[in-house]
Automatic annotation (TrEMBL):
It comes from the Eukaryota. The chain crosses the membrane at residues 56-76. It comes from Musa balbisiana. This is phospholipid:diacylglycerol acyltransferase. It is a single-pass membrane protein. One of its GO terms (molecular function) is O-acyltransferase activity. Residues 1-47, 382-412 are annotated as: Disordered. Its EC number is 2.3.1.158.
Length: 692
């Protein structure tokens, strides 16, 4: 049995787990366990906190960004206020070289002094408007600016602002319970918004040679209204007459130099007829009033013959820039997006502004061209640039412009039919007229109301709601519109607006200026239907920018079928490409100042009034002064001192110098021999077959 092994005993079972009965746990063990649990909880809490700290929420990012922007703003503001006043100029000169003296300083050194009183006539939208009476939504805004300044109320209460900026759709005067009036004094239009000058630079330079408020007068008026209605409601024309008479009598009998800008050019043209016309329609000043009180009228950027841009604004509440925005964000500007319905509000408001109808193109196809011709035909959209604003472009025997080196500027035909101001489709704009089949819209029956079911559409009423789908289709089927047929188009799509406008404005060419009907005030702002005053010693200047592509004609399309849309819009997909670069984003471009084409700004002084004509029977001398656009070289130059843009030209040193010299006593011949021309205005004027 020795060989037998003894079996091992089985392993002892593990000890039982400790009892959960806390009553049997000793106080020391219990305390130790609690400490362990607390430590673990603290570690877990710290871990969660670190994880949360590592995550960066959108709110954190926004707060951080706002903090950085505010800190940077306050730091820059503190630095700006702490630095010497000459430091910005020092930095600019270090980068760009020495800056030229402002015109006022330059001419002061030459010994020029204030002589003739100066009258400023602002244009559309540049003059401030303030509230004198309003509805409940406008509480707290008494004598606060609704137009100009910061435009704060546009953002705070947009619908209330639109309501108070609109005029009565029947009378063109104040709506019941609302009184908005023009701001008075030089501050009315010195700045359009903080930092955005209009007249301020010119005023400051005039002050350098001795001008002050008693020798400068801002002829502010409510630019929304028809010109005659500014007299009916506010007696504005009478105030201008009285102020000019006062300035002449208190300044030794020296006549005034009047400086209108933009639509102010048409307003003052109306004034010159009004002031000499007998009462009650006119001011009763007699036939020699202008000769006795006005030395010169220096028109800046004057739309004498209208602007195509006005048609686009009335037809679809658009211009080139708005059309681009409308294409980038389809439906945002003209739908119910966020309840804004922006374009329809804009259209409803601006169609109550009768003044906009003063800038519809005048002279019909005779001036603006027909289906297959236009005065600017063959214009090249990449013309040879001139060296600077001081160069004087001469003319050869045929009236063609020559550049600074004496080389005739030639343009290559690009087959642009500028005479077709509105075309439905790019192919229509380019097709020969013989191949275009038009269906006359004038007898079309309006119907199938486009806003019959949508309450929000009816709340923002425009005349398109009464046009109906049948009327919309009829407009598009006519295919192309020239300056003559545009008037019929606007009467068809906006009869109520045009009915008001036809009481105050006319767009034709007079056959017989001695016809008594032309004594009516509606003809007075059309230079083709009225005579200049009998003032042979007076001078008239046309000062405007050139070298900027300017809206001249449009390619349209129908908007997507939706009840609340404005039914027509510029077709931004229409482009000419390299072979026809005058067509950009549905807009045909020609030479001008970005708003007014050269043809409108220059024709009357280049030909229509040049010498003794039936429109200028006393032979008032006229001068064309063009300023070739040169953009600022860098951001430090701001809006530049050689700009030819429609508003920025008010800071153009060459223009300001011309104005100051005339105000100080110079004549047109003293300004470098008279005309200063860079464009083809004389050549284009010769293409216009108008009896003079």
């Amino acid at each position: 049995m020795a060989m037998l092994r003894r079996r091992k005993a089985p392993p002892a079972p593990p000890p039982p787990p400790p009892s959960e009965d806390h009553s049997s746990t000793s106080p020391v063990a219990s305390s130790s366990k609690a400490e362990v649990n607390e430590t673990e909880k603290a570690k877990a809490s710290e871990k969660v906190r670190k994880e949360r700290k590592g995550r960066w929420s959108c709110l954190d990012s926004c707060c951080w960004l706002v903090g950085v922007i505010c800190s940077a703003w306050w730091l820059l503001l503190l630095s700006y206020n702490a630095m010497p006043a000459s430091f910005p100029q020092y930095v600019t000169e270090a980068i760009t070289g020495p800056l030229p003296d402002p015109p006022g300083v330059k001419l002061q050194k030459e010994g020029l002094k204030a002589k003739h009183p100066v009258v400023f006539v602002p244009g559309i939208v540049t003059g401030g408007l303030e509230l004198w009476e309003g509805h409940q939504c406008a509480d707290g805004l008494f004598r606060k600016r609704l137009w100009g300044g910061t435009f704060g109320e546009v953002y705070k209460r947009p619908l209330c602002w639109v309501e108070h900026m609109s005029l009565d759709n029947e009378t063109g005067l104040d709506p019941p319970g609302i009184r908005v009036r023009p701001v008075t004094g030089l501050v009315a239009a010195d700045y359009f918004a903080p930092g955005y000058f209009v007249w301020a630079v010119l005023i400051a330079n005039l002050a350098r040679i001795g001008y002050e408020e008693k020798t400068m007068y801002m002829a502010a008026y409510d630019w929304r209204m028809s010109f005659q209605n500014t007299e009916v409601r506010d007696k504005t024309l009478s105030r201008i007459k009285s102020n000019i008479e006062l300035m002449v009598s208190t300044n030794g009998g020296r006549k005034v130099v009047v400086i209108p800008h933009s639509m102010g050019v048409l307003y003052f043209l109306h004034f010159m007829k009004w002031v000499e016309a007998p009462a009650p329609m006119g001011g009763g000043g007699g036939p020699n009033w202008c000769a006795d009180h006005i030395k010169a009228v220096m028109n800046i950027g004057g739309p004498f013959l209208g602007v195509p841009k006005a048609v686009a604004g009335l037809f679809s509440a658009e211009a080139k820039d708005v059309a681009v925005a409308r294409a980038i964000a389809p439906g945002v500007l003209d739908s119910d997006f966020l309840g804004l319905q922006t374009l329809r509000h804009v259209m409803r408001m601006t169609r109550t502004w009768d003044s906009t109808m003063s800038m519809i193109p005048k002279g019909g196809d005779t001036i603006w061209g027909g289906f297959d011709w236009s005065p600017e035909g063959g214009y090249e959209c990449n013309p040879k640039k001139h060296k600077n604003n001081d160069s004087h472009a001469s003319k050869d025997g045929n009236g063609a412009s020559k550049d600074v080196d004496g080389e005739t500027v030639k343009s290559q035909s690009q087959s642009v039919n500028y005479g077709r101001i509105v075309s439905f489709g790019k192919h229509i704009a380019e097709t020969p007229s013989a191949k275009i089949q038009q269906i006359d819209f004038r007898g079309a029956v309006k119907g199938n109301n486009v806003a019959h079911s949508n309450a929000s559409c009816r709340e923002i009423w425009t005349e398109y709601h009464e046009l109906g789908w049948a009327g919309i289709k009829a407009v598009a089927d006519y295919k192309a519109y020239t300056a003559s047929s545009l008037l019929d188009l606007l009467h068809f799509v906006a009869p109520k607006m045009m009915q008001r406008g036809s009481q105050h404005f006319s767009y034709g060419i007079a056959d017989n200026l001695d016809d008594p009907k032309y004594m009516h005030h509606k003809y007075w702002s059309n230079p083709l239907e009225t005579k200049l005053p009998n003032a042979p010693d007076m001078e008239i200047y046309s000062l405007y920018g050139v070298g900027i592509l300017t809206e001249r004609a449009y390619v349209y399309k129908l908007s997507p079928s939706a009840e609340c849309y404005i039914p027509f819009q510029i077709d931004t997909s229409a482009n000419g490409g390299h072979q026809q670069n005058c067509l950009q984003g549905g807009v045909y471009l020609a030479d001008g100042d970005e708003t007014v084409p050269v043809l409108s700004a220059g024709y009357m002084c280049a030909k229509g009034w040049r010498g003794k004509t039936r429109f200028n029977p006393s032979g008032i001398k006229t001068y064309v002064r063009e300023y070739n656009h040169a953009p600022p070289a860098n951001l430090l130059e701001g809006r530049g001192t050689q700009s030819g843009a429609h508003v920025d030209i008010m800071g153009n040193f060459a223009l300001i110098e011309d104005v100051i010299r005339v105000a100080a006593g110079a004549t047109g011949e003293d300004l470098g021999g008279g005309d200063q021309v860079y464009s083809d205005i004389f050549k284009w004027s010769e293409k216009i077959n108008l009896r003079l």
